[in-house]
């Protein structure tokens, strides 16, 4: 895990401390292993005993008059905003050392670890402070649904839907373009399974004809390559890549593979040489 901030003390290295295995820290473009912890983020493993440099970092956060700052949890693979809470100095330090998203409950006036009752922890991979140093992002991987309602995230009430169709109550998860497309493909697949009559759909046609689908994936991949070989415009390459993504996502839907699974694989390859990774297959 790394904690990132552009305002860290960059040139000081603190003594070795017993940190969780594999726990790394980053400060700007500087990165050290668990044996050399940067001044911006070192925390001893027991009793939240802070190194002086960690105190300096925590002092630099603009805590409000109650000693709190907004803390947002974000999915490291999908980018989805999972939830928002508050953190104090101890909660932030606990998140760094335990790698579990930890917040401060204003109602109970105590720390709480997301998942401590539901087991749906948010496993922290990185922590970011904003430019004003008054809000925090826990970038992590959730073990399950984040919202207490059982929803994937706490953000599923679309303002535009509420304003435009107040009589229709429908939960809509806040999703980026890629995941909105994945959701639509999933809906078409569900319509086929449930034999729901609807208007003709190219997605359904692909889902029902594996041979056609595979031929389209190959065709679109070839057309993408031709944009490079024929030195075509960037817009053309973007268009062909969109076709490759769409048809590949339909194929993934048939294999019950989510884009989040694909992105997780890519993330885990970041620290490994591409040549080494291929040789290990």
UniProtKB/TrEMBL annotation:
What pathway is it annotated to?
A: Amino-acid biosynthesis; L-histidine biosynthesis; L-histidine from 5-phospho-alpha-D-ribose 1-diphosphate: step 2/9; Amino-acid biosynthesis; L-histidine biosynthesis; L-histidine from 5-phospho-alpha-D-ribose 1-diphosphate: step 3/9
Pfam families on file: PRA-CH, PRA-PH
List residues of the Phosphoribosyl-AMP cyclohydrolase domain: 83-156
- Reaction catalysis annotation: 1-(5-phospho-beta-D-ribosyl)-ATP + H2O = 1-(5-phospho-beta-D-ribosyl)-5'-AMP + diphosphate + H(+); 1-(5-phospho-beta-D-ribosyl)-5'-AMP + H2O = 1-(5-phospho-beta-D-ribosyl)-5-[(5-phospho-beta-D-ribosylamino)methylideneamino]imidazole-4-carboxamide
MF annotations from Gene Ontology: ATP binding; phosphoribosyl-AMP cyclohydrolase activity; phosphoribosyl-ATP diphosphatase activity
* Keywords assigned by UniProt, alphabetized: Amino-acid biosynthesis, ATP-binding, Histidine biosynthesis, Hydrolase, Multifunctional enzyme, Nucleotide-binding
Q: Which domain of life is it from?
A: Eukaryota
* Record-level GO BP terms: L-histidine biosynthetic process
Family the entry assigns:
In the N-terminal section; belongs to the PRA-CH family.
Q: Which HAMAP family match?
A: HisIE (MF_01019)
Which PANTHER family does the record associate with it?
HISTIDINE BIOSYNTHESIS BIFUNCTIONAL PROTEIN, HISTIDINE BIOSYNTHESIS BIFUNCTIONAL PROTEIN HIS7
Protein's UniProt name:
Phosphoribosyl-AMP cyclohydrolase domain-containing protein
Supply the source organism's classification. Eukaryota, Viridiplantae, Streptophyta, Embryophyta, Tracheophyta
**Gene name on record?**
LOC110700612
């Amino acid at each position: 895990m790394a904690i990132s901030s552009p305002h860290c003390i960059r040139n000081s290295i603190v003594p070795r401390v017993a940190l969780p295995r594999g726990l790394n820290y980053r400060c700007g473009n500087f990165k050290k292993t668990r044996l050399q912890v940067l001044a911006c983020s070192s925390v001893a493993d027991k009793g939240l005993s802070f190194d002086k440099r960690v105190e300096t970092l925590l002092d630099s956060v603009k805590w409000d008059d109650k000693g709190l700052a907004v803390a947002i949890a974000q999915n490291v693979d999908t980018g989805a905003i999972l939830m928002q809470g508050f953190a104090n100095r101890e909660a932030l330090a606990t998140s760094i050392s335990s790698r579990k998203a930890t917040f401060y409950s204003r109602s109970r006036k105590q720390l709480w670890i997301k998942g401590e009752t539901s087991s749906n922890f948010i496993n922290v991979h990185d922590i970011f402070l904003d430019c004003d140093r008054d809000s925090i992002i826990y970038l992590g991987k959730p073990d399950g649904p984040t919202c207490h309602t059982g929803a994937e995230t706490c953000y599923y009430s679309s303002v535009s839907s509420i304003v435009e169709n107040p009589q229709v109550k429908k939960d809509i998860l806040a999703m980026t373009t890629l995941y909105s497309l994945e959701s639509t493909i999933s809906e078409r697949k569900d319509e086929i399974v449930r034999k729901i009559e609807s208007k003709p759909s190219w997605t359904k046609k692909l889902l029902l004809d594996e041979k056609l689908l595979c031929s389209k994936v190959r065709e679109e991949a070839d057309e993408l390559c031709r944009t490079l070989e024929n030195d075509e415009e960037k817009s053309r390459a973007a268009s062909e890549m969109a076709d490759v993504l769409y048809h590949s996502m339909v194929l993934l839907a048939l294999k019950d593979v989510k884009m989040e699974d694909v992105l997780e694989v890519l993330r885990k390859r970041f620290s490994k040489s591409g040549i080494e990774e291929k040789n290990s297959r």
